[in-house]
Amino acid sequence: MELDIPNASVMMIEGAESFGLAQLHQFRGRVGRSSHQSYCFLFTGSETPRAMERLRYFEQTNDGFKLAEKDLEMRGPGEVYGVEQSGMMNCVWRI
Fold first, then answer.
1. What is the pLDDT of residues 57-79, one digit of tens each?
2. Rg (CA), the chain
3. What is the separation of C-alpha 39 from the centre of its chain, rounded to a whole number of angstroms?
4. Which of 5, 32, 45, 81 could bond 38 through an S-S bridge, CB–CB 3.0 to 4.6 Å?
């Protein structure tokens, strides 16, 4: 089910450092689809220089392609068959 509320004007994202920049951009696009002023608030539990740089870039850029390129530059492509960037940090898989 897709939730469609065109008059939504506020979005709050907790743990924003955990999301990719392109994904944050998609979230941000869910508000401000009407004539009302809209806001997207990002909250982070991490103040590392790397996390802050990523979020500052997000704040300054509205171009989804530039955000995706910056994310690739900063976080890398991940692993196709590994666990890097899988969202399951410090997990050991046993089969």
1. 999 999 999 998 998 888 777 76
2. 15
3. 15
4. 32
Measured distance CA(64)–CA(10) in Å, rounded: 20
With beta carbons less than 8 A apart as the criterion, state whether 11 and 30 touch. yes
- DSSP line for 21-70: HHHHHHHHTTS--SSS--EEEE--S---HHHHHHHHHHHH---HHHHHHH
Closest CA to 13 of 5, 23, 4, 3: 23
pLDDT at res. 44: 92
pLDDT tens-digit map of 15-53: 999 888 988 998 888 888 888 888 999 999 988 998 899
Residues ≥6 apart with Cβ < 8 Å to 49: none
* Interstrand relation of 10-13 and 39-42 (parallel, antiparallel or unpaired): parallel
